[in-house]
Amino acid sequence: MVQCAALQRELEDLRRQKEERERELEGENNEFKMEIVKLRAEMEAILRELQSIMDSKLGLELEIAAYRKLLEGEETRSASCTPAFYQH
For residues 22 and 1, what is the distance between their CA atoms, to the nearest angstrom? Predict the structure, then answer.
């Protein structure tokens, strides 16, 4: 009977430890879920910023190409208007 009572107490202790550990793990799990939500939001903000930068880059590249074309056209026009004795 004494041994049975000791085993019963040990079983109850183990159950309490198990429940306590489950609560700890559930708390850790919730913390991880919150961290995931935070990191996802941060990643989305970074992706939006990257998209904005890429849009600006594309706009600048198009502007550079337009100015380059204007410059090349001006150089061609300037070269064709230069008298022959000034050309080398």
Answer: 31
Chain segment 32-53, per-residue pLDDT in tens: 999 999 999 999 999 999 999 9
Write the CB contacts of 79 (distance below 8 Å, at least 6 apart in sequence): 87
Does pTM surpass 0.70? no
pLDDT at 84: 56
Each domain of the chain, given as residue ranges in start order, spans: 2-78
Tokens of 28: 């850790």
Q: Three-state SS across the chain?
A: CHHHHHHHHHHHHHHHHHHHHHHHHHHHHHHHHHHHHHHHHHHHHHHHHHHHHHHHHHHHHHHHHHHHHHHHHHHHHHHHHCCHHHCC
Asked if 87 and 79 touch (Cβ cutoff 8 Å), the reply is yes
- The residue assigned the tokens 């019963």 is 8
